[in-house]
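Protocol step 4 of 6: structure prediction from sequence.
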Amino acid sequence: MRTSVRRSALAILAGAAVFALGACEKPAPGISVFSGVSTQHDQALCWSFSGESLSPEECAQDVVQEALTGQGVRSIEVIPGETVGISVEPQVASEGWTPVIGTERLVQTPINSTYFRFTFPDLQQVPEGGLPLQVVAGSGETTRGIWVFRLIPNPGVE
């Protein structure tokens, strides 16, 4: 009788383990944004694991719009005139990616390397609440993933 109880317990544990592992989801790729000694890392708001282009249903536009206003995104303080770096995982680089500040693309064609840097604009050009930095993975008409950070100007130490 003890053997049947043990077998039942093992069967239940094995079933629970399979269920738990099946519920695990592979994390979306992450990127890092840094300036000076400040660094922020985050996973994509949306990522297409299938390799297909994201549709509005897969990456709800209200989530992206909310992120563009600074809600629920990571912020990083940057000093105007200083360098801001973006580091992406190789999987993102192989898809191609484009950094966008506000509505302005920082490059004409998608980047295929894992690193890009740019100079943060002068304080007079930056709204008080900072600027949204979007990183859009994909090339052409295909959007594979989206990240949003908020760049907050810090005039630095006088």
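Step 5 (inspection) to follow. Residues 4-23 have pLDDT under 50 and may be disordered.
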